[in-house]
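thread: overnight batch results

M.L. [08:02]
morning all. the overnight job finished for the chain we discussed friday. pasting input first so we're all looking at the same thing
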Amino acid sequence: MSESPKASDASSSAAPEEPVVGILGAGRAGTAFARTLLRAGVAVDIASTRPPRALQHHLKIYAPGAQPVHAEDIAARARNSSGIIILAVPQEELDELDPDWVANTVLVDATNTWQDELLPGWLQAAVDEQLPTSMALAGRFGAARVVKALNHIAHADFDDAARPGADLSGRRALAVAGDDESARGLVMGLLFRMGFDPVSVGSLAAGRIMEPDGPLFNRPLRREDILHYAR
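M.L. [08:03]
and the structure it wrote out:
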């Protein structure tokens, strides 16, 4: 008589749980990221200034399938999965985010500095010194590993630009910058899954080329275009 399968054998053969990414910001950029992640089989928790109950209807329209959560809970599931949180809030609202909310995560800085935007003092000081804003964010959110990505493509282009079924030559290239090589690699893997061709440009300081006044901003790029500027 054959033995019945052990519980451990059954659990080991079960399909792995889908990864989870958190998104801070439910505006046009945040929901565009969420839609692409969900299509790629990545679960999404998303938070904004509105409480989860008030956010539900908005997400049903703009990011169906995304789970609304409180901002302070944004990393709860991600820490045990992908470890990735995407920061997609206006920079003028950054002081409203408690750094503890994203501690021990990979924090993807998808933000940009816009003209006449009223910035927190610590960020305005970096702008005045002509430093890449991601470096200031890395100081502010010191318990997270900050990676610059997803900021140099317009949210209106995001859905159509993501091509997970295409080989690399048929994908839009996106730059990735970060001081932590492991964190940078995690983000590149996520971008690949979403349907892009991720290209490392080096450290956070190198991310300056991805900002609104830089050569990569809001341009449809191939890998060789980005590598021309990589350090």
